[in-house]
Amino acid sequence: MQPDDETLVADCLSGDGTAFDMLVGRYEKLVFNVARRMVGDVEDARDIAQTVFMKAFESLNSFDPRFRFRSWLTRITINESLNHRNARRGTEPLDERWASPERGPAELASGAEHSRAVDAALGTLQPEYRAVIVLRHFLECSYREMAAVLQIPEKTVKSRLFTARQLLKEALVREGALG
Fold first, then answer.
1. CB 11 within 8 Å of CB 69
2. Does the chain have fewer CB atoms within 10 Å around its N or its C terminus?
3. Which of these, 34, 20, 33, 15, lies nearest to 69 by C-alpha position?
4. CA 168, CA 178: separation in Å to the nearest integer?
């Protein structure tokens, strides 16, 4: 039987390096997927995931065991994703004429056209709306978990999710994914 998160955190704080490795193994896909949905780029998501685990390790002693480790780690991921997006605002995108006409590995691996349309539509949403969509529909968090991760009241989560769904629907219509 695998130890629970709280036991692994305690073991890690006691100097057991393999305990943190187990936490990374348990949550690396979650962290990567949240980051990818927040920033829309696979390579950036990988970089963010590394930063998240480094920051989590460095601040593990500030983790409050009354809360879920998963929620705490997701909050770090969302914050790092937002920081990354804000830092990139000042950069110029590459000229489209330089792009290869062949599909790259990310496009080949991304799956169906619908998934690309959803990702594109998510990219048009403001970060606070994107975060609630990712938490609810991709991570299947409850309203309570979402409130804990985002550090906002449940009423605000529900209101924000309602608006986010409307905005996402409008974006999907613009992308041609919905009729």
1. no
2. N
3. 20
4. 11
* pLDDT tens digits for range 11-69: 999 999 899 999 999 999 999 999 998 888 899 999 999 999 999 999 999 998 888 89
Sequence-distant (6+) residues with CB within 8 A of 171 are: 120, 121, 122, 124, 125
pTM over 0.70: no
Expressed as residue numbers, the domain containing 85 is 1-89
Residue from 122, 50, 134 nearest 84 by CA: 50
CATH number of residue 66's parent domain: 1.10.1740.10
Q: Is residue 134 one of the residues assigned to a domain?
A: yes
